[in-house]
Amino acid sequence: MHALPSGPVLAFLSSQGRKEACGPRGEKVHGIKITANGFEMEVPRETTLEKLLDILEETVRPDVIVELNRKFVHLNDYSSTLLKEGDDVEVIHLEMGG
Description:
Elements: E1 10-13, E2 19-22, E3 32-36, E4 39-43, H1 49-55, E5 64-68, E6 71-73, E7 88-93
Parallel strand pairs: 3-7
Antiparallel strand pairs: 1-2, 3-4, 5-6, 5-7
């Protein structure tokens, strides 16, 4: 088993079109497989929803909601919600208008 890097974790698209995690020097990070917005990706173990949003470059705003396994997650719980192997995350941008 490979140790996770101590620095920031970056994401990149693999040759198969999946997002995968890599360390600050580009080394492969072995973690867990999840689905985010319909795309399979690998993230480090102990990744929270907050960190996933950072990896996906999603800004936390009032018009963005997150579902984890088809259940709404409150903004206050992003930093304490750990992802598990096989989780399905949807980041939904609400359209508001008049």
